[in-house]
């Protein structure tokens, strides 16, 4: 697959700026990000690259007084996530109970839940704040015998943990066919047989039976747009966990959720990223 590499130089440059860049660029199709001292390198499939969309994102960059310039290059064809995995994906332990590692790791800590992920081109190794916050929520949740939907499943890391914690049945949905294929591989690697993976978006939920628990780690705008479809397949007492947005987005997310009959329970914050929990009244 052909990729475009965009090298962004930001001044000033700090973790908040590279996080916001990654969040905004993910919304226009960028898949992987490698922060560097002066900014970040970001990768997008050549067929999805729209330079005008990139210019608009950078022109409307929400942190004032940030100077941003970029250069483009077309690196040789290779699997960039594989490169990233080999060089940067280290085993990670979350909540002292869940270890995530890849097939090529031989030395990793033992934990109650041992998840093997080969992310290839999909998002979800547990290193991102949003994934690890939802994992921490799932470790606290009672999932035994509950039906779970993982919307925007990426690698299906969250669906796999839910199944390991007793959820049954589990449905995982993603809009990206790379994620759907990768999910199926990861589910098999973890010897799980009760997760159904589907390609699509919230329109697939139309007419669906209610879920006891819904997880959606996507982004603010998609969550705001798709929340009515999620709540249409929840019953009184169903739980909704959402992430993929920042502290400052909580009021908008909360207002929408409450207008749909959800009650806010709490939020969890990590480097300004948040995960929120709601329960249907
Ligand atoms: C931030 S990643 C989360 C991946 C994984 N669930 C995790 O927590 O690490 C968001 C995922 O949502 C998918 N996605 C984006 N828009 C979507 C939509 N409208 N419906 C379903 N999935 C979507 C993306 O392809 C991506 O895999």
Automatic annotation (TrEMBL):
Carries keyword Metal-binding? no
Q: Which GO terms describe its biological process?
A: methylation
Q: Which Pfam families match?
A: PrmA (PF06325)
Instruction: Please name the GO terms that the record assigns under molecular function.
Output: protein-lysine N-methyltransferase activity
Q: What is its EC number?
A: 2.1.1.-
Q: Under which main EC class is this enzyme filed?
A: transferase
Q: Return the GO cellular component terms, semicolon-separated.
A: cytoplasm; ribosome
Instruction: Kindly state which reaction or reactions the protein catalyses.
Output: L-lysyl-[protein] + 3 S-adenosyl-L-methionine = N(6),N(6),N(6)-trimethyl-L-lysyl-[protein] + 3 S-adenosyl-L-homocysteine + 3 H(+)
Q: Which UniProt keywords apply?
A: Cytoplasm, Methyltransferase, Ribonucleoprotein, Ribosomal protein, S-adenosyl-L-methionine, Transferase
Binding sites annotated in the UniProt record for S-adenosyl-L-methionine? 131, 152, 174, 217
Which family does this protein fall into? Belongs to the methyltransferase superfamily. PrmA family.
Q: Summarize the protein's role.
A: Methylates ribosomal protein L11.
The record's PANTHER family line, in alphabetical order, gives: ELECTRON TRANSFER FLAVOPROTEIN BETA SUBUNIT LYSINE METHYLTRANSFERASE
**Protein name as it appears in the record:** Ribosomal protein L11 methyltransferase
This protein's species is Phocaeicola salanitronis (strain DSM 18170 / JCM 13657 / CCUG 60908 / BL78) (Bacteroides salanitronis)
């Amino acid at each position: 697959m052909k990729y475009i590499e965009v090298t962004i130089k930001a001044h000033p440059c700090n973790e908040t700026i590279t996080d916001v860049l990654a969040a905004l660029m993910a919304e226009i199709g960028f898949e992987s990000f490698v922060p560097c001292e002066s900014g970040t390198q970001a990768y997008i499939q050549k067929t999805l690259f729209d330079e005008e969309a990139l210019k608009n994102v950078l022109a409307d960059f929400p942190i004032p007084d940030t100077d941003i310039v970029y250069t483009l290059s077309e690196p040789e064809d290779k699997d960039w996530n594989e490169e990233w995995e080999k060089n940067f994906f280290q085993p990670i332990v979350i909540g002292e109970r869940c270890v995530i590692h890849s097939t090529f790791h031989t030395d990793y800590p033992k934990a109650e839940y041992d998840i093997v992920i080969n992310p290839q081109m999909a998002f979800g190794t547990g290193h991102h704040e949003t994934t690890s916050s939802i994992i921490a929520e799932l470790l606290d949740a009672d999932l035994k015998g509950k039906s779970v939907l993982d919307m925007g499943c990426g690698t299906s890391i969250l669906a796999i943990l839910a199944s390991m914690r007793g959820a049954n049945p589990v449905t995982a949905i993603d809009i990206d066919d790379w994620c759907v294929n990768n999910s199926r591989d990861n589910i098999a690697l973890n010897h799980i047989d009760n997760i159904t993976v589907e390609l699509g978006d919230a329109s697939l939920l139309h007419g669906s039976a209610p879920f006891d628990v819904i997880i959606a780690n996507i982004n603010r705008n998609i969550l705001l747009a798709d929340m009515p479809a999620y709540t249409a397949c929840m019953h009184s007492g169903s739980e909704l966990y959402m992430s993929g947005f920042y502290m400052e987005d909580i009021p908008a997310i909360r207002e929408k959720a409450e207008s749909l009959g959800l009650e806010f329970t709490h939020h969890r914050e990590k480097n300004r990223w948040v995960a929120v929990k709601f329960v249907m009244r």
